[in-house]
Specification:
Elements lengths: L15 H29 L8 H16 L11 H15 L26 H18 L4 H29 L2 H24 L4 H13 L6 H22 L3 E2 L4 E7 L19 E6 L2 E7 L9 H11 L10 E5 L5 H8 L4 E6 L2 H10 L10 E5 L2 H7 L5 E6 L23 H9 L1 E12 L3 H15 L4 E5 L4 E7 L9 H11 L18 H16 L13 H25 L3 H24 L5 H17 L10 H27 L5 H18 L3 H4 L3 H20 L1
Parallel strand pairs: 5-6, 5-8, 6-7, 8-9
Antiparallel strand pairs: 1-2, 2-3, 3-4, 9-11, 10-11
Helix pairs in contact: 1-2, 1-5, 1-6, 1-7, 2-5, 2-16, 2-21, 3-5, 3-8, 5-21, 6-18, 7-8, 13-14, 14-15, 16-21, 17-18, 17-20, 17-21, 17-23, 18-20, 19-20, 19-23
Length: 712
């Protein structure tokens, strides 16, 4: 173990106990900063919302590089206000840009948020200056430039935190330090989850991050005072730019009244200020939905009549609406359409509680006040799996298109598991004979329309009807369940899905044009590997040795995390709460493994490796979603066996090898660099499906075992 002589006088802990608590505080801070950036940056820089795993990978790169640099006797952490300021400035400028979409993947992009008309007062003046000085000249900047700048800015911030963490690891007993590191991370997840539950704004997130770093940062002298002023200025900007919005666990939400619309040839006169036509909802600076007054008098306008026609299409014909399930109820337009159609009951299913609250409070027709409406806040797949067979006469998929990812550990969007062959089959199972399935979707992309048509055809067993409504860009697909309908054979469904490239639970990428890794993901993978290799050029020649065992352990573990989170989302739902519990449970499993090794220092490493590989191969052989059983206790038991047991065993291997390490900071750095590469390897699922991550992980753990055998 490296002695205390390697720790500078300005950073030297006064006691091992204080050093351990400092490490826990820094780990808490690192996790909190990571989650705060994952939430805040995509809310401003629209395109980053579809690639938030890059912020995760950038944080691993920064922490890993910082740990590798930790032998340098320089107090780098004191400069974090500069990287914070750079990230705030970068986000404000890039958030004003319109960025071309990457080819091969459909993403939703709205207007730039930081234009003058969106704000007032001093913040408006600042926005004008940003627009005129930077953004107006950078419009249309290449997608790759935006992503690269965000990646590098994030990594630079975490280098400073990683440097201090690495120095503490070098000074402390490895396993005890690792326990405090994990405990701090778990506390960070729990506190940020609480902030999400309370819908706290970004100023609260960053204030917590600033406070934790501020406690371990020297502020003496003129330089310290200037850094403090910079931090205060950054918090003011973060607070002011986030104040006009509501912050749900999923989105930054903007609500504005709709007083005017425009038809084909004529504008509609402005409505009285106290009686708007409805409310427009934008999430992460992109249009999401409107809560409109589509009652009879309002339909004289072409625009409003078009929207009314769109929402009424699922009930077209002479059939009764009956008992209706609205998947993605949102602010309530689909719910009100069901009520207009004479529904006996309406189950309104919505994942975002904040959007649901907006609908309850602001929808002009007050659909959620109707006693026939029963509201459920849950994930769509989770509800459909539990739905009673033959429960509904009509199932309507509303505008479910999501504008963010399920988790920073994955490329999955929140709605990806909703638009799969298996999901539509579950919706059909919830219908009564002759019941109707309807899907509403906004798209002008031909291949996406074809894919939705294929999903409906596969589910119904016959071609659906479809109609596009002018002025809305919305299209509705609908069809009836035949009296003799039976679920198709899984093997034949898989063959059809593969032939037509339909999304399945194993390949749920609705918005990806074709199976494969698009060019922009290959670029991400290349830049991650390149920066990981270059990071070793920053350290002394004597330290330029990548510990291959810890590198492969890091890469394999991140893939384990990714596959675990996606599988748990399929079993329990894609809600923020499930995601937080899954992430926290993974960290707890690793902490338990570390505590076990402190009492059982020599576990059979070879057999642990072989068991991990065997469990991962077994996971690969199991079809996606096969762990689902109706009993929650049964699902938890299966998750423990198939998902969490490899994580626990991997933790035992890591801690047993980390124990007594001569240079734990360098091993920690190698592990984090490996995790960064593992994050990039997650993109292989775009070509081979999520199940393939099990096999990639098995290969990585085999490589780790070979590296261990070689260095024995």
């Amino acid at each position: 173990m490296v002695g205390t002589s390697e720790t500078s006088a300005s950073e030297a802990p006064q006691s091992p106990r204080r050093a351990l608590w400092t490490l826990a505080l820094l780990s808490f801070s690192a996790l909190f900063w990571e989650l705060a950036l994952i939430r805040w940056v995509p809310g401003s820089v629209r395109v980053v919302g579809y690639f938030t795993n890059l912020i995760l990978i950038a944080s691993f790169l920064g922490l890993g590089v910082g740990a590798l640099l930790s032998r340098h006797d320089r107090p780098l952490l004191r400069w974090w206000p500069l990287t914070f300021g750079a990230l705030v400035a970068l986000t404000l400028v890039l958030g004003s840009l319109t960025t071309p979409d990457p080819s091969g993947e459909h993403i939703w992009q709205g207007a730039a948020p930081y234009l003058p008309e969106h704000t007032s007062g001093w913040l408006a003046s600042l926005n004008i200056w940003i627009w005129e000085s930077f953004a107006a000249r950078m419009q249309g900047v290449d997608f790759y430039v935006v992503i690269t700048l965000v990646f590098l800015g994030t990594a630079a911030h975490f280098v400073l935190i990683g440097h201090r963490i690495g120095r503490l690891f070098a000074w402390l007993p490895p396993l005890r330090a690792y326990s405090f590191d994990l405990a701090g991370s778990i506390a960070g997840v729990l506190l940020f989850s609480l902030a999400s539950r309370l819908s706290l704004p970004p100023i609260a997130w960053f204030a917590a991050g600033v406070l934790t770093l501020g406690l371990v940062t020297p502020w003496r002298g003129l330089a310290g005072g200037l850094r403090g002023l910079l931090v205060v200025g950054c918090l003011v900007l973060v607070g002011a730019s986030g104040a006009p919005y509501a912050w749900s666990p999923y989105y930054k939400i903007e609500v504005a009244p709709v007083h005017t619309t425009r038809g084909v040839q004529r504008p509609v006169p402005k409505a009285p200020s106290d009686q708007p036509l409805g409310y427009r909802v934008r999430v992460n600076n992109d249009y999401h939905q409107m809560a409109l007054n589509l009652a009879a008098p309002a339909t004289e306008d072409v625009f409003l009549s078009g929207w009314k026609q769109l929402y009424d299409l699922p009930y077209k014909g002479e059939r009764a609406a009956g008992d209706v399930l609205v998947v993605g109820a949102g602010t309530g337009n689909d719910v009100q359409a069901a009520l207009r159609a004479g529904a006996r009951s309406v189950t309104a299913l919505e994942i975002d509680p904040t959007i649901l609250t907006i609908g309850r409070r602001l929808h002009p027709e007050r659909p959620y006040d109707d006693p026939r409406v029963h509201v459920v806040v849950d994930d769509a797949r989770s509800f459909l799996k539990r739905a009673e067979q033959g429960r509904f006469d009509t199932v309507v998929f509303g505008f479910l298109d999501s504008h963010t990812l399920l988790s920073s550990l994955s490329t999955l969007r929140i709605d990806n598991y909703v638009y799969t062959v298996q999901s539509f089959r579950e919706a059909m199972n919830a219908l009564r004979p002759s019941g109707r399935l309807a899907v509403t979707f906004t798209t002008a992309t031909p291949w996406l329309k074809t894919r939705l048509f294929g999903l409906m055809t596969t589910a119904l067993g016959h071609r659906p009807e479809t109609e596009k409504v002018a002025y809305t860009n919305g299209r509705v697909f609908w069809g009836e369940r035949a009296v003799d309908w039976r679920p198709a054979n899984p093997a034949s469904v898989a063959a059809v899905a593969d032939e037509l490239q339909l999304p399945t639970d194993d390949w749920p990428f609705l918005y990806l044009e074709q199976t494969g890794i698009p060019a922009h993901y290959l670029y991400f993978m290349a830049i991650v590997v390149l920066l990981g290799l270059c990071s070793f050029g920053l350290v002394a020649p004597s330290d330029r040795r990548l510990n291959l065992q810890f590198f492969f352990l890091g890469a394999g573990f991140l893939l384990l995390e990714t596959r675990s989170v996606t599988e748990i989302a399929l079993l329990f739902g894609s809600t923020w709460a499930v995601n937080a519990i899954a992430f926290c449970s993974i960290l707890v499993a690793v902490l338990v493994a570390n505590m076990v090794v402190q009492r059982w220092p020599r576990p059979p490493v070879k057999w642990l490796y072989l068991t991990i590989v065997g469990l991962l191969i077994a996971g690969w052989l199991l079809p996606a979603g096969s762990l689902y059983v109706p009993s929650v206790a049964g699902r938890l038991a299966l998750c423990g066996l198939v998902i969490f047991s490899p994580i626990l065993l991997a933790g035992l291997v890591f801690s047993s090898q980390f124990r007594g390490a001569a240079s734990p900071n360098l091993l920690f750095g190698s592990n984090l660099i490996g995790a960064m590469v593992g994050g990039a390897l997650e993109y292989t699922s775009l070509a081979a499906g999520l199940g393939s991550l099990y096999m990639v992980g098995a290969l990585l753990y085999l490589c780790a075992m070979l590296a261990w055998l070689r260095q024995r």
